[in-house]
């Protein structure tokens, strides 16, 4: 990825460092998660909905009307609508909690809802469930404040100074025991 900057010039462009690129990806994924809601998720054209007959009590209505909604995102690992870091966390590739709606075998996200007697309410509920699960599963570390980094750098310098002083004292002690002829 090429960006305009003053480091490592190649003509008027330069290659961005891997640490900066990782931070850029993390920031964009964090922002994507922050603005994610059921309305933005429904804009994904790859989401498939299927409506079936619901189970449980409901009388004649349940026998006649297909109200249970099943939301599916097929071939999830290749879906570029979701940021790469979000996809990896949902699939469990980053070592975190795996999304309960992700199926490795089918490589898809599948969510069902038959909580209400309304088709549209169940469809909206599927989207809400998926958004809630994505927000729970995905976690990105925040930037460490400058004060905290300075504090720990100071502690490391003090620890190193103390270690070197103890080495000097130990060396002097050994040198003083050495006999000269």
UniProtKB/TrEMBL annotation:
InterPro entries membership: Mito_Release_Factor_mL62, Pep_chain_release_fac_I
One GO cellular component term: mitochondrial large ribosomal subunit
Domain Prokaryotic-type class I peptide chain release factors residue range list: 45-175
GO molecular function: peptidyl-tRNA hydrolase activity; translation release factor activity, codon nonspecific
Pfam families xref list: RF-1
UniProt GO BP: mitochondrial translational termination
Segments of this protein annotated with the region Disordered: 157-181
Annotated coiled-coil segments of the chain: none
Residues annotated as transmembrane: none
Gene3D superfamilies: 3.30.160.20
Domain of life: Eukaryota
Protein name: Prokaryotic-type class I peptide chain release factors domain-containing protein
Protein species of origin: Huiozyma naganishii (strain ATCC MYA-139 / BCRC 22969 / CBS 8797 / KCTC 17520 / NBRC 10181 / NCYC 3082 / Yp74L-3)
The organism's taxonomic lineage, starting at the top: Eukaryota, Fungi, Dikarya, Ascomycota, Saccharomycotina
Gene: KNAG0A01450
């Amino acid at each position: 990825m090429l960006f305009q900057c003053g480091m490592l010039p190649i003509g008027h462009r330069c290659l961005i460092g891997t640490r900066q690129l990782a931070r850029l990806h993390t920031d964009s994924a964090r922002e994507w998660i922050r603005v994610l809601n059921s309305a933005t998720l429904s804009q994904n054209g790859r989401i498939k909905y299927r409506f079936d007959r619901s189970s449980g009590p409901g009388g004649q209505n349940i026998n006649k009307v297909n109200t249970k909604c099943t939301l599916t995102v097929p071939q999830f690992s290749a879906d570029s609508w979701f940021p790469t870091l979000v996809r990896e966390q949902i699939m469990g590739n980053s070592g975190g909690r795996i999304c309960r709606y992700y199926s490795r075998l089918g490589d898809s996200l599948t969510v069902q809802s038959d909580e209400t007697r309304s088709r549209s309410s169940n469809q909206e509920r599927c989207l809400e469930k998926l958004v809630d699960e994505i927000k729970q599963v995905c976690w990105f570390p925040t930037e460490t404040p400058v004060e905290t980094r300075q504090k720990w750098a100071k502690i490391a310098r003090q620890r190193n100074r103390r270690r070197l002083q103890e080495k000097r004292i130990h060396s002097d002690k050994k040198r003083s025991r050495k006999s000269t002829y």
